[in-house]
Amino acid sequence: MTSFREISPADDDKMVIVLAIDRHDGLVDLLRSFYQAGVLTLLITDRDINLPPDVCDSRTTVSADKFVETVKDLVTPIFNNGMINLDFNDQSITLRNTSKFVVCTADARGGDSRIADAVASFPGKIPDRKHVERMLWSITHNRKLNPPLAIKEIAPITEFIKSLPETIDIVWGVLIDDSLPGDTVRLSIIVAGKEL
């Protein structure tokens, strides 16, 4: 759509994700109306758009063909139950008033090295660690994961987290998604910070 004028926050809105392929007339007003209403306001664009600082909680820039994938990575942790659940409050704590965010996801298959393989794919995707303020980690797998997830597989996550500055707030969960193949573990990270 090219006009945002007819959209406004409702009393029960908790989060809005706005996708924009350019700075359209009314975009700033739309974002600001949700942001000022206390709704977690996220913006996903395909190019860096110059915006005032008081219009959204956080934003990211990805190619337009990644919009759907990015939205899915943002909402999946909220709606998937698991062994250690994540919810909207975890998402809100991670993204509220952070200015910028990045989503990284990796699927890993195989045995004991699944998590290590996924973690190894992240360093080049995560912005400068000294600017990271918050992270939300989710480990997602099929209920019939074979072989089952072993506690020793989590060690690469622990090592990666130990390499980060101690000032980063980290939330994490272990989720179930039976649509994933039975040999796959999906590791996702939402990284947020004001200076990313």
Q: How many strands?
A: 8
Largest sheet: 8 strands, mixed
User: H/E series, N to C?
Assistant: EHEEHEHEHEHEE
Helix content: 10-25%
Gross CATH architecture of the largest domain: 2-Layer Sandwich
Strand content: 25-35%
Shape category = globular
Which structural class should the secondary elements be placed in? alpha/beta
Name the average pLDDT.
Answer: 90
Q: What name goes with the CATH superfamily of the largest domain?
A: Tubulin/FtsZ, C-terminal domain
User: What's the helix count?
Assistant: 5
Provide the domain count.
2
Q: What integer value in Å does the Rg equal?
A: 17 Å
The top-level CATH class of the largest domain is Alpha Beta
Task: Quote the distance from N terminus to C terminus.
Answer: 29 Å
Indicate the low-confidence ranges by residue numbers: none
Key phrases:
2 domains, 196 residues, globular, alpha/beta, 23% helix, 60s Ribosomal Protein L30, Chain: A
Write the layout of secondary structure elements.
Elements lengths: L14 E6 L6 H10 L3 E6 L12 E4 L5 H13 L2 E3 L3 H8 L3 E11 L4 H7 L13 E8 L13 H8 L6 E8 L7 E10 L3
Structural commentary:
The longest helix is centred in the middle third of the chain and has 13 residues. Strands 1-2-3-5-8-6-7-4 form an eight-stranded mixed β-sheet, sandwiched between helices. By secondary structure, it is α/β, with parallel strands linked by helices. It is built from five helices and eight strands.
Brief overview:
With 196 residues, the chain is α/β, with parallel strands linked by helices. 23% of the residues lie in helices and 29% in strands.
